[in-house]
Amino acid sequence: MSAPFTQPTHADILSAAARIAPHAHVTPVLQARSLDDAAGCALAFKAESMQRGGAFKFRGACNAVYSLEATIAARGVVTHSSGNHGGALALAAKLRSLPCHVVVPEGAVRSKLAAIEAHGAVLHRCAPTIAAREAMCAQVQRDTGADLVHPYADARVIAGQGTAVLELLHARTLDAVVVPVGGGGLASGTAIALAAIAPQTALFLAEPAGAAETLLSLQRGERVTDFTPDTICDGLRGTLGEPNFDILRAHGAEVIAVEDDATRAAMRLLFQRAKLLVEPSSAIALAAVLAQPARFAGKRVGVVLTGGNVDPDALPW
Amino acid sequence: MSAPFTQPTHADILSAAARIAPHAHVTPVLQARSLDDAAGCALAFKAESMQRGGAFKFRGACNAVYSLEATIAARGVVTHSSGNHGGALALAAKLRSLPCHVVVPEGAVRSKLAAIEAHGAVLHRCAPTIAAREAMCAQVQRDTGADLVHPYADARVIAGQGTAVLELLHARTLDAVVVPVGGGGLASGTAIALAAIAPQTALFLAEPAGAAETLLSLQRGERVTDFTPDTICDGLRGTLGEPNFDILRAHGAEVIAVEDDATRAAMRLLFQRAKLLVEPSSAIALAAVLAQPARFAGKRVGVVLTGGNVDPDALPW
Question: Which Pfam families match (chains A, B) (predicted)?
Answer without folding.
Answer: PALP
